[in-house]
Every structure is written in structure tokens, then in C-alpha cells.
Amino acid sequence: MALSFRELQAQLQPDWGCEHNGDGGQFDVLVVPSLSMDQALMALVTGAHHYEERQLFALMRLRDPGVRAIYVTSKLLPELVVDAVLELMPGVPTSHARRRLHLFDTDDASNRPLTAKLLERPALLGRIRELLRPGRSFISCFVVTELEKQLSELLQVPLLGTDPALGYWGSKAGSRALFARCGVPHPPGSDLAHNLSDLAEATADLWEAHPELRRCVVKLNEGISGEGNACLELAALPLAELSGRERRSRLRAALEQLPMPAALWQELLADQGALVEAWLDGGEALSSPSVQGTIHPGGAVELVSTHEQILGGAGGQTYLGCRFPADDVYRLELMRYGQAVGEALAAEGALERYAVDFIARRLHGTWDLQAIEVNLRQGGTTHPTMALRAITTGQLDPATGLFMAPTGQAVYYTATDNLTDPQLRGLLPADLIDIVAEADLHYDPARLRGSVFHLLGCLSEYGKLGMTCIGRSAAEAEAVYQATADGLIGRARELQAGG
Questions:
Q1: Residue 417 has pLDDT above 80, yes or no
Q2: DSSP code of 76?
């Protein structure tokens, strides 16, 4: 008799959540890096189908000689792209890791989620199933939706991730409820609305409770990476001079013209709902830190990183990259809040990666943290942390929030998925590796300095690249980032000119 998803998850072992044990673990991990998210939002991400490459850093599990990995993508990954990751792992010959890695693809480059493509190919699933050892296998995904749940039940293999039935806790409304439960400070805001009239009502209620507000942010309940957020300028509307009815009418008209990044956002409003929150003004200084953790099978919560998020885009709400770690003036407070949220999520039955985003403001010389949202999935800060762990074999010091190499040296990085320049378009991954080698930009384990690259599949078509730039201080990591960006773009320009 086939087991249910809940019964399959009960088979997960606590050590399967650890990226590297060194204790001779014997298991198989099926990596399905499907971006099973709202396709209208994913369409806004340049080269989104290549983002399946980001989870290649999950192959760090191959540092344990008893681990085997099966990695599935929409299109077959070039050997050079795979080897570029395997060669980063210290202490493991690439050939040894490669023998324990099996690559599969669906031969389908369409924009549909990878998991949906897999479910349409029973013969391919049969070949994958034959490789998985019963009772010693699990699935690792970027995000868990009903598609991934269906895949788990079809293969009869447990999935290390949060049941989509708990997805509410990763929505904007669920995040606010979680913060209230945990006593984590968060901005004033509203409940969900599913049409413009109700959203205008919620916005009016928020302003009437806080008439000092000059702007607010409207958030689609299931928006990702800031796509689905938009700023509404309240100061431009004479709200104080209007009656309650006129105020709501004026706000509704403003919401109709909202410059929402998400295409067809009013249709998404009806489908998933949206809420409105106070826009937190900067005071003397403003930043966007976050904290990441893992919930292991059995419920243990492990904090894995803190970051300063680098945001941009039209409304300054789109995730572009990050710096590790978060500022030391509030890092430990950030970690305390992250631990509290992780324990609340674990009590609900959540598993694997989660992250909490914050706004930090310096007001009258004191830093104020306000939680913004919870993500119940891997994200843009996941793969840089995995890369750092893979290439240094170090770990996070829970007392300081610093990442310590085995030598005792603290290590820092600046990372991005969005190094984009027209000069990079047309370069092949092999060209990139040549440039990096010639310019001495690659990561050097002896110096704990240099750059590690991902999203190589985006390079030729889109002139876009991801990289994690590592140094022994925040300033050195930033200098490595600038030197790498300038060196790559400068050399690419010379090559394009025939130099």
C-alpha cells in the first residue's frame, strides 16, 4: 500500500538535514531544483529557467563518501558547469564525487516548473526510482508545492521540506501572524483583501490609525523577492482634508494606478489577496537584514546565516544580492528573533530552510528591527552560504554570528545573482573560466579570498552571471566583488573588440 506524504516524511532521519556530517552517512539525495512558483512572477526574472543551476551547491553532500546524488534539470547541464562546482570541494577528488553523481534532464526548456515536467515523464521517473535505495533516500527541493508533494508520493520517497499545507506561514499574512505570536516586532498593517475596494478600506484604516504615515507598501500575499510589492505615496494625497468616503474613493483610484512590478497584479489580488503595511522611513540610517535557519527532522532548529540584503528595482523592493554577515550592531538580536520564529515553525511541523526578512532603522542613535516576512523555502541567500560551507569546511559561530574557517579566521562574502552587462553576452562558460584564471579572480583556499560563480547558463544568452565573492573582512569581500565585476566586464569588452 502506498504511503501518504505525512507517512513518508516520518521516515526522514535527523542527520539527513545536515549538509555534511563526516560520519560515514549512507543515503541518496534526489535534487529537484524546480522553481514551482507563480509563473506570472517568475516571468519577471531574466533567465529564470537557468536558476535550476543554483542548487548545484547541494552537491556538497558528496563530501561524505557514502552519499549519492541524483540531480535533475529541465535541460542537460554542461559537464563544465557541474565540474566547476565539484572541483570546489576540498578533500574529495572530483572523479570520486562524479562517480556518485547521476544527472538527468527532461529535455524541455519551456518555462513550466521542472517538477511538472517530471510528472509527465513516467519512464524518466522509473529510471530515477531505480537508483534510489529504499529507506535511505530523500528529495531536496528549492520550494515545496503540491507538485513536489505529488512527486514524493509517486516515487514513494520522503521529501525534506515543509508540507505545502503549511504554506500559510510563508505568506505575507501568515508571517504577520507568526511575528505576533513570537513577540517579534513588525510594522503596523492590515489583514488580507481580495479586491481594490477592500484594499482601499484597509489602507484608509491604516492611515487613520497612523496619520503620520507618508507612504505604505502594498504586498501581494504570495509575492517573491520583492516582486509583488509596491509603494503607495500617501503624502501626495490630501487625505486629512477628505471625508472618510472621499478618502477611500481617492485611495482606490490611487491603487488602480499602482506601479506594481507583477504583471496582471489585480488578477493576482483576486486570487491570492494582498495587504498593506506601514512604510518604514529610514531615520538616520536604513538597511534590510535577514536571518536564515534550517529545521531538521525531529524539530531541532539551526541558524545558518545572517545577511544584509541588497535591494533594487523600480520600487527598491527587488532582491539583487546580499552581504554576509549582517551588521554586528544588531546581528545577535536578529539571530534571537530568527531562532524564535524557527522554533514556532518547527512546532507547526515545518522542515528545512526558512528565512526572516527585516528592516533595520537607526532612530536617535539606536537600531530598531522590524520583521517583514518569512520565506519557507530556499532563496537568494541559500546558495552563497552553501558555497561557503562547501569550499571552506567551516561553520557559523552561534555566539558571534561569524563564519569561522577551520583556521579560526572569520570569512565574509558579497554575493549576487544579477551581475548583468551587455559585454558579457555571448561569452561561454569556458570563456569565463579562462578569464577568471588569467586574472587570478578564482577562489584561493590558502588566502580565503576570491570568487565562486553560478548561473553560468545565463551568461551567453543574457549577459548575466551569479557570483559569491569571499574575503577575510567585509571590506575585502567587497573589494573582491568590485575587482571581479570590473575584471570580467573589462576583459569581455576586449574580447568583443577582438583583443
A1: yes
A2: P
Q: CA angle 188-197-214, nearest 5°?
A: 40
For position 320, what pLDDT does the model report? Answer: 85
Render pLDDT for 93-111 as a digit per residue (tens, 0 to 9): 889 999 999 999 999 988 8
Preceding peptide of 325 cis, ω within 30°: yes
CB of 338 within 8 A of CB of 345?
A: no
Residue tagged 513518508 (cell numbers): 8
42 vs 58: CA distance, rounded Å: 22
Taking CA atoms, 73 is separated from 70, 111, 333, in Å, by 10, 12, 39
For all residues of the chain together, what is the average pLDDT? Answer: 90
Beta pairing partners, 306? 291
pLDDT score recorded for residue 220: 92
Q: How far apart are CA 254 and CA 404, in angstroms?
A: 50
Residue 275: closest CA among 332, 191, 196:
191
Rounded-to-integer distance, Cα 4 and Cα 11, Å = 11
371 phi, psi to nearest 5 deg:
-75, 140
